User: Fold this.
Amino acid sequence: MQTVSVQEAKNNARALLLDVRTPAEYKEVHTADALLRPLAELHPATLAELAANRPIYILCRTGNRARQAAERLQKSGVTDVAVIEGGIEAWQAAGLPVVRGRKTMSLERQVRIAAGALVLTGMILGFLLHPCFFVIPTFVGTGLILPVLPSGVAWECSLPECPGTRALPRS
Assistant:
């Protein structure tokens, strides 16, 4: 798989710069010329039309999702594809210009806060009102443990891919 440095990507004005991070990550920080196409919503045929004989340089946060996107594009016949080494983190570290938006809380952090609040509430209510409230932290704990067990199939999908958690398409 072909890779390019952040400096090479910045200097090639002809290339289509493709950002495959989530919309929340993109809003937080992105390059001025990047086209947002989250990995989960990547359609190689559409990108081939957009690129129109230009190289496609793909970036994400550090490079992992960009590699997945590049593989998907190459399997569909798009050949002039390269991954930007180090992603947006390397871009920022090199001092290249970025557009900064509002920092958003990650989905994982939101889930942790909600789970912690439920456990704390269940414990307080269990001690102060009635022991039946201890069922709340029990369910939360079970819900957190089951997905990481090898045979646990309770939550097969990752949160960003679950129905209702994807960003709506732009009109």
Observations:
- DSSP finds seven helices and seven strands in the chain.
